[in-house]
Amino acid sequence: MAPAEVIVVDLVLIDGELGMVKLTANGVLEAIEYGEPSRYWTVKKDVLGFVVEGKYIRIKTVVEREEGICCGEFGGDYSRKDFVFEPFSEDAKNRFCFKLRHYLDSLGRPKRLLVFVNPFGGKKSAIKIFEKEVKPLFEDADIQLDVQETKYQLHAKEMVRSMDVSKYDGIVCVSGDGVLVEVRTGNGMIKSLLDAVGLQCCANSATISIIRGHTRSLDVATISQGNTKFFSVLMLAWGLVADIDIESEKFRWMGSARMDFYAIQRIISLRQYNGRVLFLPAPGFESYGQPTSYRLHKEPPVKVLGYQGPDTKFEDVEWREIKGPFVSVWLHNVPWGAENNLVAPAAKFSDGFLDLIVVKNCPKLALLSLMTQISEGTHVQSPYVAYLKVKAFALEPGALVDEPDKEGIIDADGEVLARGRRTYKCEQIALMSYDKLQITVDQGLATLFSPEY
């Protein structure tokens, strides 16, 4: 193989000693020092940016940390390490900067980002994480930031509606999954993206993935109830999972332990819900459930701004149904539901399907075992779990089997979508009523910053 064309090469001083720097057309930056082995950086992967400091050029790079090494308070897969050299003349300095800037610009990296910071997200440490971990990396990459702090639920959605988001190359959310859904990523989403390439679920790795500018498509689910719509990118839950997710908020003072604590409490006092789920199975999953007739409800067209969901045509296909009682119904768009929950191990980002996990008639001890298996994704192998892929879905939620006057909670992407009678904080108004809703999938509608696969 012929050596790559040299874009620029110059004699320089490195730590006061004579050396040479070279940039090639395939994006390799090489530093040659007398008596030392050459150092190499791949600009696309290793170089964040550069800055001129008087007569010096500082190349801002990232290096992968050794396994088991965690530097700094937050840690991550990468650490910052600069390379500084001194060209022999002003012309040489300007020439090198021009060539390197031109190459960096050719990579298609983001240049301007809208950043939403939720001060209540990330265990109320989102602002600290942004200031110490995220912002410095973006500044090193010379990315312009427009930072907005959210004040309340759905605040990000309100701000986006009144902004010209076309002037940004992307939107970054420093929070949990909720803010992501308001504007369209979160803990479960970031874990799904980074885990696929063996990276840690942390701000360090996520930020560098954004800087590098690689993207991938993501399915978007449209949850409809009459004219009311909610666009979901992560999950929908009803039954045990939703109850744990939402009701455990009363134990937020316990930190992350609240979820495990309340899960045990809910399994001991297990609830089962009447109801019915209907679905259009993906190819290969037609044996699940029983045949039924169903027609997706469509409201008469109205003139409204914004995306209104996919134009579905499922009238001539066979729907299936599963009737309750149910312990839990879970729909997932990506593999991970949280940093330690591999909920849907077969889920894909843009296959046009949602992964459906249904639990019925499960003994309490078996259910407790199932909950401990979620971290490895082996819970879907249980005989008490139906795990399949669906193209469309309808939920008809009912009341508790043992308490007909008490209903449940429907949770979408970590936020309450609907509250039934006598539920936790049932006096609060939710986006939808505790009644039939339907879900359709638009394949690859959204675009995410992503590590390169």
TrEMBL record:
Keyword Kinase: yes
A Pfam family: YegS_C
Gene3D superfamilies in the cross-refs: 2.60.200.40, Probable inorganic polyphosphate/atp-NAD kinase, domain 1
Signal sequence, start to end: none
UniProt key word Kinase: yes
Keywords, ordered alphabetically: ATP-binding, Kinase, Nucleotide-binding, Transferase
GO CC entries: cytoplasm; membrane
PROSITE patterns found in the cross-reference section: DAGK (PS50146)
Molecular functions per Gene Ontology: ATP binding; lipid kinase activity
GO biological process, one term: sphingosine biosynthetic process
Record domain DAGKc: where: 108-186
PANTHER family: ACYLGLYCEROL KINASE, MITOCHONDRIAL, SPHINGOSINE KINASE
Name this polypeptide is given: DAGKc domain-containing protein
Organism from which the protein derives: Brassica campestris (Field mustard)
